[in-house]
From TrEMBL:
<dbReference type="GO" id="GO:0045259">
    <property type="term" value="C:proton-transporting ATP synthase complex"/>
</dbReference>
<keyword id="KW-0375">Hydrogen ion transport</keyword>
<dbReference type="GO" id="GO:0046933">
    <property type="term" value="F:proton-transporting ATP synthase activity, rotational mechanism"/>
</dbReference>
<comment type="function">
    <text>Key component of the F(0) channel; it plays a direct role in translocation across the membrane. A homomeric c-ring of between 10-14 subunits forms the central stalk rotor element with the F(1) delta and epsilon subunits.</text>
</comment>
<keyword id="KW-0066">ATP synthesis</keyword>
<keyword id="KW-0472">Membrane</keyword>
<dbReference type="InterPro" id="IPR035921">
    <property type="entry name" value="F/V-ATP_Csub_sf"/>
</dbReference>
<keyword id="KW-0406">Ion transport</keyword>
<dbReference type="GO" id="GO:0008289">
    <property type="term" value="F:lipid binding"/>
</dbReference>
<dbReference type="InterPro" id="IPR038662">
    <property type="entry name" value="ATP_synth_F0_csu_sf"/>
</dbReference>
<keyword id="KW-0446">Lipid-binding</keyword>
<keyword id="KW-0812">Transmembrane</keyword>
<protein>
    <recommendedName>
        <fullName>ATP synthase subunit c</fullName>
    </recommendedName>
</protein>
<keyword id="KW-0138">CF(0)</keyword>
<dbReference type="Pfam" id="PF00137">
    <property type="entry name" value="ATP-synt_C"/>
</dbReference>
<dbReference type="InterPro" id="IPR020537">
    <property type="entry name" value="ATP_synth_F0_csu_DDCD_BS"/>
</dbReference>
<keyword id="KW-1003">Cell membrane</keyword>
Length: 81
């Protein structure tokens, strides 16, 4: 009986580590979003006439970075069974 309780406690610890791992993995998309908007602002300052194209690329880059974060949220539910 105690082996079963130890196994249950170990599985709980592993799930907690998964949450910590996702928290650490969320740093990557955060840095990516910062780089996308920082470089986009630099590009707008250098070539204001290309604002439409630059803004479109900024939004696309933001969407890709955020998609990585959303995939990271979903994966523990998919593989955590």
């Amino acid at each position: 009986m105690s082996a079963t309780l130890e196994l249950a406690a170990l599985q709980g610890d592993i799930k907690a580590l998964g949450s910590i791992g996702y928290g650490l993995a969320a740093i990557g998309p955060g840095i990516g979003v910062g780089i996308v908007f920082g470089k986009g602002t630099e590009a707008l300052a250098r070539q204001p006439e290309a604002a439409g194209l630059i803004r479109a690329n900024q939004i696309l880059g933001f969407a890709f970075c955020e998609a990585l974060a959303l995939i990271g949220i979903v994966m523990p539910f998919v593989y955590g069974s």
